[in-house]
Design a protein that fits this description.
It is built from 25 helices and two strands. It is mainly alpha-helical. About 35% of the residues are buried.
Length: about 425
């Protein structure tokens, strides 16, 4: 009887010809791996929570969580952490824009066209009425930021960044985040010409040269340039990825990183596809066609880790010593250190909430002395604060050779194509 019982206990357990466990033990091994992953997830959640309630907020831990495997894990956490990464007070958000934001705005017609063509950026299965509301909000978000920053110039692809923020954090927070990103991380893309964008793209080839000279030389012989990565860069890959979860994972990474990190990721993707590139005919049109289409099954966690390693090994300061990168000063790069320092002394939301209530109470008492309590207490919490702040080859070669003002002119005269056509060309 005991022998039979022991036999039952060992049922399904075996060893294959390679000495590996099979059957139940193999399943047990998978269970252990899942349990370890669950423990790692719980530990990361606890670390993020602790970082958020620390006073001051532990920004370094939040950056590390956003950049390491899995990113910020959930949209609920993103709504809490993304504002901290950009030094945004959740109790001091701008108003929801009114309809007047569209009046006499020079970019309104183009923004309207781009947003109407952005249906694929919204979740599949979303009711048309809900999508229509979000698209109206998206138009207002973009115009509001541009209105309050007249030095910034709209570009096709900007709406891809804005819609990602809107879908995660909502309208008012999206305005605050987009405003900050536009003045820092995305600043070089918002000049009146494409010269600053060209400057950022110019970092791509030196990174490849440092890592894989043979691949770099192949691309130089093919005269492919860097135009294939333009839409990746200016939309933070939102325009070219079909899975929204992959877009969110990259946004976690980019929000916690240097403004040039998207170009390091572009280099990592090209290096990852090195065999495909080298097996392609050494022809500009052929190589451009291959590289401009990102595979949807890329190992994103691996690529993110490799991008960080590349950045640490070949920082922008090292690459900028090359003559081609010394001719222009990047506003995104030059202001980043000061921006990072400004994020280090934020108070946790619980403290900010008390301060907000206290300030609101003080404001109410002062106002009631002059015009009564009703005039002092606004209906909306946001009112306590002021408004915030060969033909293909010839075409691509021509764009590569004259990327500055010439590309800007092409972009402006090609508005009727729509962003999908224009970005596919790039």
């Amino acid at each position: 009887m005991k022998r039979l019982k022991r036999k039952k206990q060992n049922a399904g357990v075996g060893v294959n010809g390679n000495g590996s466990l099979t059957g139940d033990r193999k399943l047990t091994g998978r269970g252990v791996k899942l349990k370890q992953q669950d423990c790692g997830r719980k530990q990361k959640l606890a670390e993020i929570h602790q970082a958020l309630i620390s006073d001051p907020v532990d920004i370094e831990t939040l950056r590390r969580a956003a950049a390491t495997k899995g990113g910020l894990l959930t949209d609920e956490l993103r709504r809490k952490v993304w504002p901290k990464l950009l030094n945004i007070n959740v109790y001091e958000l701008p108003y929801k824009p009114g309809r007047d934001v569209r009046e006499n705005h020079k970019d309104y017609n183009q923004v309207l066209l781009d947003v109407r063509r952005s249906m694929k950026r919204f979740p599949k299965g979303m009711p048309a009425t809900e999508r229509a509301v979000l698209q109206e909000q998206l138009i207002n978000i973009i115009l509001e930021v541009l209105k309050h920053n007249p030095q910034l110039h709209y570009y096709q692809g900007y709406h891809d960044v804005a819609v990602t923020l809107l879908l995660v954090v909502g309208e008012r927070m999206a305005i605050a985040m987009l405003d900050t990103l536009s003045n820092y991380h995305l600043r070089d893309f918002m000049d009146p010409t494409m010269d600053s964008t060209k400057h950022i793209l110019n970092y791509l080839m030196p990174i490849l040269e440092q890592v894989d000279t043979e691949l770099h030389d192949f691309m130089i012989r093919a005269e492919v340039g860097t135009i294939f990565a333009l839409s990746w860069l200016i939309t933070w890959y939102g325009h070219v990825l079909s899975e929204f979860r992959h877009t969110l994972r990259l946004y976690d990474f980019f929000l916690a990183s240097h403004p040039l990190m998207p170009i390091y990721l572009a280099a990592t993707i090209v290096l990852h596809r090195e065999k495909d590139v080298k097996q392609t005919e050494c022809d500009m049109a052929m190589v451009h066609h291959l590289l401009s289409r990102i595979p949807q099954d890329l190992p994103y966690e691996l690529l993110i880790a490799q991008s960080q390693d590349l950045f640490n090994q070949y920082p922008p300061s090292l690459l900028a010593k090359r003559a081609a990168l010394q001719s222009r000063k990047s506003l995104s790069i030059s202001t980043f250190q000061a921006f990072q320092l400004s994020t280090l002394h934020q108070r946790p939301d619980s403290v900010l909430q008390r301060l907000t209530k206290a300030q609101g109470s003080t404001t109410s008492r002062q106002a009631s002395q002059h015009s009564g309590l009703e005039a002092a207490l606004p209906r909306d919490r946001g009112q306590l604060w002021g408004k915030g702040n060969r033909m293909v080859k010839m075409a691509v070669w021509g764009l590569s050779a004259t990327l500055g003002a010439a590309v800007f002119a092409v972009a402006q005269t090609a508005m009727d194509w729509g962003p999908e056509v224009l970005l596919q060309l790039f």
